[in-house]
Amino acid sequence: MVLDALLMAVWHRSPQDMVLAHSDQGSQYTSHEWQAFLNQHCLQSSMSRRGNCHDIALTESFFQLLK
Q1: Where are the domains of the chain?
Q2: How many CB atoms lie under 10 A from the CB of residue 47?
Q3: pLDDT of 14-59, one tens digit each?
């Protein structure tokens, strides 16, 4: 289902440059099928390191303001 949604987004947008596909560290995002899909559609996987809030410090700071 995730691949179908991402394929629809790629098809509608037709990106010309490399696009980052942000995901969590779930096993489905490290599978060979996922990596092959990304390579086939000129997408690059982006995952932050486990437990490292500094990877997304700006986002964390923003949400801290909302709390």
Answers
A1: 2-66
A2: 14
A3: 877 777 776 766 666 778 888 888 888 888 887 666 556 566 676 7
Residue 9's Cβ-count burial label (10 Å; 0-12, 13-18, 19+) is: middle
* CATH architecture of the domain formed by 2-66: 2-Layer Sandwich (3.30)
Q: Is pTM beyond 0.85 here?
A: no
Please name the residues in contact with 28: beta carbons below 8 A apart, sequence gap of 6 or more.
Answer: 2, 34
Q: Which is it for the CA torsion 7, 60, 29, 27, positive or negative? A: negative
Instruction: Name residue, tokens 């987004």.
Output: 9
